[in-house]
Amino acid sequence: MQIYWTKINKIIEETPEVKTYLLDRPEDFSWEEGSHTHFALKGFNAGDKPNRGLIRHMSISTLPHENSIGITTRIKEQCSEFKATLRNLEVGDEVAIFKTHSNIPLKREDKNVYLLSSGVGLATFRPLVLDYFERAENVNKIHSLNIDSSKDFLFTTIFESAPDKKFSSQFVDNREDYYKEVKNLAADQDGQFYIVGSDEFLMENIELLRAQGIQPEQIMLDKRQQQLAEFL
């Protein structure tokens, strides 16, 4: 297993609770849209066993051509040891990344694509949307639906409806509106539905989509192959 030690080159305050940490990209490090990585803080491998309290599974919110590895995360006032340590890091500090993999690259099968996310889960979809803007081949259209009760919506300059690009985006701040809209989207019986959020959020969406006749093979989750059976 290769561990890449790299430095934070910029910290962006997206909202009062959400930050993006942009990391220098090591020369031989590459990834594709929809990727996640293990993001670790200094000291995680200092002992005989890795300190799992200093490691988190994070989505990469940038594309390789942006030349920085973006990690976008919510840090609340009351937070874990990991988040508290991360909050105190500064530009120039070192972090580690390893075991990078994509479960949800953008499928290009001439279908309509629906991106369903909760809160900061939208960060996983940012690269998919940018990739689609650059190359729209074999995707009919994309619609993004995000729920965030904080009302501090993320990446609003990217997730902005653009009819000329066959892209639409919707933000809601409550479950009732969100699930009503999901039900409407499920009227497209041939669509592809990508879902990112907590396990509970995934299960609620899957249950609703399945009840509307959407088949398991139309539902994409940011989960390893062996985990999919637990959800689908």
Automatic annotation (TrEMBL):
Origin: domain of life: Bacteria
Protein name, entry field: Ferredoxin--NADP+ reductase
Enzymatic class: oxidoreductase
Ranges where the FAD-binding FR-type domain occurs: 1-107
Keywords: Oxidoreductase
InterPro entries in the record: FAD-bd_FR_type (IPR017927), FNR_nucleotide-bd (IPR039261), Riboflavin_synthase-like_b-brl (IPR017938)
Annotated GO MF terms: ferredoxin-NADP+ reductase activity
EC number: 1.18.1.2
Organism (species): Sporosarcina limicola
UniProt keyword annotation of Oxidoreductase present: yes
